[in-house]
Amino acid sequence: MKRIKVKLLEIKEEPLPIRTDFIKLDQALKFSGIAETGGHAKDLIEKGAVRVNGETCTSRGKKLFKGDNFEYKDVRFTIEKEA
Description:
By secondary structure, the chain is α+β, with helices and mostly antiparallel strands. The protein contains 2 helices and 7 strands, in the order E-E-H-H-E-E-E-E-E. It starts with 11 loop residues before the first strand and ends with a strand.
């Protein structure tokens, strides 16, 4: 029997503190540094490259609240309310 080794992708966890009650997904991508522009954020979201709370999200206006998270490649950002 042949054994196959699988390398698991290690996800880096990063907090994303915000001052408001929520942040829209496209704004969060820009604020986190993943997207350089709103257009870039829109492309990433429309292509299904971003996951929100573990599920692919294609709505750039999706509101993220404290405790929500979003992932792109190997980084997961968790929304935190800034003190």
